[in-house]
Structures are given as C-alpha cells and as structure tokens.
Task: inverse folding
C-alpha cells in the first residue's frame, strides 16, 4: 500500500474525528483543506557571487479563532504537503490550548548548515519581504521551527518593520529578549510537558517524588525535561539517549552533569557511572514515565506491546506511529499526545504576542504561572473527552480542538 504523505495523514485524522463527532459534511469539507497558501521564490546572492533561487511557502490553515500562528522551517527536504499538515496541526494545537489563534506554517527548501551567516540573513529577509502581504501582528504571526533561530526571527522582524515603516515587534515570536522576546521561552515546551505529566500522575496515582523517567532525545526539549523532572518533582532520571546512543543508571543521573558531559564530548555516551543503552531499548524500560523527545515513529506496532512505562509523554512530534496508539491504549499505557504535551512552546509564543501588543513584559515566574493555567485545563478537557467517548487520548485531543474550531466557525456565521 502506498504510504500517505503527511498532509493526507492529517486529513485521515480529521476524517476519523468527523465520524465520531457526526460532523456536518460541509463543515468537514472546509476543514480538510487550507484556507490560503502562498508559494514564493527568494533570490539570494551567494558568497561566491552567484544568484540562487530558493522556494518557500506560507500556509494559513484556518483563522476562525483568530490570527494564524505557526513556525518557519528551513529544511532541504521541505515540501508544501508537510507545511500543509503542520499548519493543520497548529490549528488544532492552538484550539486545544484555547488560544485566540488559528494555525499556519511556513517553510523554505534550503540547507542552512551549508550557508554562511550572511547568506542566511539575506534568505530570512527575502522570506519576510515576500510574505509581508499575508503576515502581520493581527494576521499571521510566524515563529522559529526546524533549523531556524531567535536571531533569524529578529532579522525577519526587522525586515517586516522596514516594509511597514514602523516598529512591528509583534509580527513574529521566538525573538531574542532584546527585541521583544519573552522570558520563560527557553524551557517552555518541556515545562508544558511536565505540567501534563503532573496532572496525569494525579489521575493514575503515581507519586512523582518516587517516579523514574527515561528520556529519549537529549536536545533542547529533552534536556530541559530531564532537568525539570528532577527540579519540579524530585524524580529519578534513570536513562537518557541522544542520536549516538544512551546511558542507564538505576540510581538516577545528575542531569546537569550529563549536559556538561555532552557539551564537552558531543554525546551523553560514556558518562561516568553509566551502562550503555540503545535508542530502541530505552523505549522498553520498566520506568514510570517515558519521554520520547527526538524523532517521529519510534513507537510502532512492532514494539508498542513491549512499552512498560505507565505514562508516555510525547515531547517530540509524532513519536508514536498510528498503528501503535491502540496497542498502548489497550495495554493501559497513558499517552499524553504530542500536540498537548509539547504545546508549551506555542503557548509562551502567544504570551510573547500579548506582551508585544501592550509593551510590558512579565518576569519568568509570571510566565510559568500563566503557562500552568493554560496547560492544566487543556489536559483535563482531553482526559474528560477520552472517558466520555471511550477513545484514546490522541483522538480525544483532536475532538476537543476540532469542536472549538467548528464552534468559532459557526458563531462567525461561516457555516
């Protein structure tokens, strides 16, 4: 059978929820496709003096709940179908967190690892100029994503401001603090995930002070998750992996020391006092909480039955393959789906927008408190829907989100 591309997969997810919700066919048809998309060409004079033309996209999926929001990815294998799928998922993620935002996504086909700082700046400014007619603080607000950074967001903000003829810090989020960024953005994704784990542990009767964690993927989200598991809950992080391999210690790790080791050596492997573990074996450890924070499709039909964790907290995007979800659900594994578990990032990006609008900035403690007040009710709305329809947590998250988008469309008189 031919494999679905990501956009077709996102449509299949919607179709399944539409059936559960007995959705009106006309509403369903509207939600299956983006409302608007822009295809652009960006010429850049490279360091060797030659002009290279890059292809880019901005897809705005649905703006019933407000201005659209979503990251910009720079990737050599970017496709418009990937961007379409991600814009759909951003729509559901923003609705799930009850943010007054719709969903969008952007992308440029390029390899930033092979480009100089000057070339990247020209590409960023070219992208911002080309999409300036469809983005804006009250239209569509981009943010960083794969291979894009706060510095790149600052260049784009500056270019848009020049085009608008006025300071427009609010046109983009994920910026450096010096130009309107938000405190608390660095660990927001992981912190949001920890809040959902805290609530799930209450539901399942797990004492997090005695709980064990395994973290697959020790990049930004994974490393922050490991640190926060210890600092917020006093839990033991007994296993950690990165792209090169992993480490295990039943007594738990000093995660700060592990981070220092990785910074020096390029990997967590070889950390003193540890035994090796693979990225495959970490998924089958007898731990309380498993945090896949790296790649997609690591839990599949083949290994889902071997997952022994009580909670799987998906900090990565799509770490559980579709055919594995029901296996985990039947085995009593409590999955916190990705677009709930990792929604802390977009939530704090929304907070950045709010701060930009009224030019007053919160301290980190205020950001953390407001994040908790958004993530906690979102988790419980999904849990209640899961119980109501006797469906797994992922499907429940989609139902909650889609219901909110449909309600906004109806109230606006679109349907």
Result:
């Amino acid at each position: 059978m031919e494999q679905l591309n990501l956009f077709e997969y996102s449509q299949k997810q919607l179709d399944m929820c539409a059936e559960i919700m007995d959705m009106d066919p006309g509403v369903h048809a509207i939600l299956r496709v983006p409302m608007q998309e822009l295809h652009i060409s960006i010429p850049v004079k490279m360091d060797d003096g030659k002009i290279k033309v890059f292809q880019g996209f901005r897809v705005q999926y649905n703006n019933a709940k407000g201005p659209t929001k979503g990251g910009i990815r720079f990737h050599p294998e970017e496709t418009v179908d990937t961007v379409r799928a991600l814009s759909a998922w951003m729509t559901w993620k923003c609705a799930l967190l009850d943010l007054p935002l719709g969903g969008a996504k952007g992308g440029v086909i390029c390899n930033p690892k092979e480009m100089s700082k000057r070339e990247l700046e020209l590409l960023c400014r070219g992208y911002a100029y080309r999409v300036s007619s469809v983005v804006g603080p009250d239209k569509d607000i981009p943010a960083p994503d794969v291979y894009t950074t706060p510095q790149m967001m600052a260049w784009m903000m500056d270019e848009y401001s020049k085009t608008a003829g006025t300071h427009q810090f609010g046109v983009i989020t994920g910026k450096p603090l010096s130009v309107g960024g938000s405190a608390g953005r660095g660990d927001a994704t992981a912190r949001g995930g920890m809040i959902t784990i805290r609530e799930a542990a209450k539901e399942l009767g797990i004492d997090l002070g005695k709980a064990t964690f395994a973290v697959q993927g020790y990049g930004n989200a994974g490393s922050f998750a490991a640190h926060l598991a210890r600092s917020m809950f006093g839990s033991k992080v007994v296993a950690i992996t990165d792209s090169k391999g992993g480490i295990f210690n039943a007594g738990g790790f000093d995660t700060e020391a592990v981070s220092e080791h990785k910074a020096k050596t390029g990997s967590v492997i070889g950390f003193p006092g540890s035994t090796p573990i693979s990225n495959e074996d970490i998924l089958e450890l007898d731990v309380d909480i498993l945090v896949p924070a790296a790649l997609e499709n690591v839990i599949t039909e083949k290994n889902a039955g071997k997952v022994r964790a009580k909670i799987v907290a998906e900090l990565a995007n799509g770490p559980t393959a579709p055919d594995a979800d029901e296996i985990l659900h039947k085995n009593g594994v409590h999955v916190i789906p990705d677009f709930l578990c990792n929604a802390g990032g977009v939530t704090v990006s929304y907070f950045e927008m709010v701060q930009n609008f009224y030019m007053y900035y919160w301290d980190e403690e205020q950001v953390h408190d407001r994040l908790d007040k958004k993530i906690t009710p979102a988790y419980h709305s999904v849990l209640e829907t899961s119980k109501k329809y006797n469906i797994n947590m992922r499907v429940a998250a989609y139902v909650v989100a889609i219901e909110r988008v449909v309600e906004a469309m109806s109230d606006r008189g679109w349907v």
